[in-house]
Write a structure and sequence with these properties.
- Belongs to the transferase hexapeptide repeat family. LpxD subfamily.
- One of its GO terms (molecular function) is UDP-3-O-[(3R)-3-hydroxyacyl]-glucosamine N-acyltransferase activity.
- By secondary structure, the chain is an alpha/beta fold.
- It has 2 domains: 13-108, MurE/MurF, N-terminal domain (Udp-n-acetylmuramoylalanyl-d-glutamate--2,6- Diaminopimelate Ligase, Chain: A, domain 1), CATH 3.40.1390; 125-330, Hexapeptide repeat proteins (UDP N-Acetylglucosamine Acyltransferase, domain 1, 3 Solenoid), CATH 2.160.10.10.
- It has 3 helices and 39 strands.
- It has an 11-stranded mixed beta sheet, with helices on one face.
- Strand 38 (320-322) and strand 39 form a beta hairpin.
Length: 355
Amino acid sequence: MEHNWFFPPHDGVRLADFAQAVGAELLDSAQGDRIVRSVSPVDRAREGDVCYILSRRFRSELATCRATALICERALAPIVPAHIAVLVTSRPHTAFALAGALLYPSAMRPERMVSDAGAVSPAAFVDPTARLEADVSVEPMAVVGREAEIGAGTRIGPGAVIGPGVRIGRDCTVAAGATVQCALVGNGVIIHPGARIGQDGFGYGPGPKGGMIKIVQVGRVIIQDNVEIGANTTIDRGTMDDTVIGEGTKIDNQVQVGHNVRIGRHCGIVSKVGIAGSTRIGDGVMIGGASGINGHITIGDGVQIAAMSGVVSDIPPGERFGGVPARPMRDFLRDIAEISMRSSSRGRKKGDKDE
């Protein structure tokens, strides 16, 4: 890849210091003064790059690797070419994530679009009753509503809208074009461009003469510390209760979270998941892309749900489910195997008749 001016390389980190920062062991301490500046895929890594491998199936890519250092488990160290310094760890994926954060700190959250750091742009509108702590940045065309409160170090991107009475904690980023209303937001939260937080939930009752009558939505959205919310994701406010996103949870782009949903701590929810209203999701739950979650059900702690699943009923803690309707993974895989065998059998019979 040619030089990327969007994310230029780091000025450089000594390999010994780098190893300590990512929690890895440098096998050859004599290489501690070598410098790393960037991350790269294995097959096209060059001097100054660091990369990682997770299994022996990537061995062929090492033939063209010219990286300064490679992160891997100890069992894989013998297959690494001699010119590459080896950083061993039992958690190479985690170490590589830490490496990226160290070498590209500006890429860890949506960056500021203009250069007046820590300033309120004259092209933004901040209501006189709003309260901003020190070092809050509000970029052009952003709106901060009446009696909103924003904590120190938080950045409000261009065109973002912070509604009346909203509370946003410290060191947050609300990126370009996002809207946050009827919400209480903790510290260290990242809200990506175009996200919609705190709008009406979808609630209607039958009308006396047909049609539907809107049910009032007077709850809030509570977003706890260190949550990340992807671009164009929507999180509806509660009807009369709160919609809650637990500490450390990461939500991908284009996810829909309905009213009164409560999501636990440190969950991962992948793109295009739809979660219907009043669902309860425990801690550490992982939901694969394009899954649909029925309303008024409970998903226990530690559950894993395969991509494109349809969850229609409660799932006990620790289970792995998949399919439509979602069922225990062993049952889902058995059903898929049976369908495949039947299809193959029908194909063979048809071929015999054609002959």
